[in-house]
Amino acid sequence: MKIISKGEGKLVSYRRIGLDTNVLIYYIEEHPVLLKKIEPLINRISEGKAIGITSYVTLLELLVKPLRDEDQTSLINIRQY
């Protein structure tokens, strides 16, 4: 299954990259299929070649499951991102 269409190579050329909840969850949980699609974007951000943009809503959505499960390790990991 192709997740991103034929323009996927162009995604890594953008200077500002918007990250929604699903993308961050796939990255944090190291999704077996989607991680390889997401890593180039995250790498550009962590290398300072792009700026990652998200919203407070996304950050709150990321915290729902770890808070509900009282998963302190996941809470720490999410806060580090």
Largest sheet strand order: 1-2
Ends apart, CA distance between termini: 28 Å
Q: Which band does the percent of strand residues land in?
A: 5-15%
Q: Tell me the number of helical segments per DSSP (H or I, 4 or more residues long).
A: 5
Q: Tell me, what's the shape?
A: globular
Radius of gyration: 13 Å
Number of strands: 2
Helix fraction bin: 55-70%
How many independent structural domains? 1
Stretches where pLDDT is under 50 for at least 5 consecutive residues are 1-5
Mean pLDDT across all residues, rounded?
Answer: 84
What is the structural class?
mainly alpha
Order of secondary-structure elements = HEHHEHH
Could you provide a short overview of the structure?
With 81 residues, the chain is mostly helical. Helix content is 57%, strand content 7%. The protein has one domain.
Summarize the topology.
Blueprint: H1 8-11, E1 16-18, H2 21-28, H3 35-46, E2 51-53, H4 56-68, H5 72-80
Parallel strand pairs: 1-2
Short key terms for the protein model shown above:
81 residues; mainly alpha; two-stranded parallel sheet; 5 helices; disordered N terminus
Explain this structure.
With 81 residues, the protein is mainly α. It has one domain. Helices cover 57% and strands 7% of the residues. It is built from five helices and two strands.
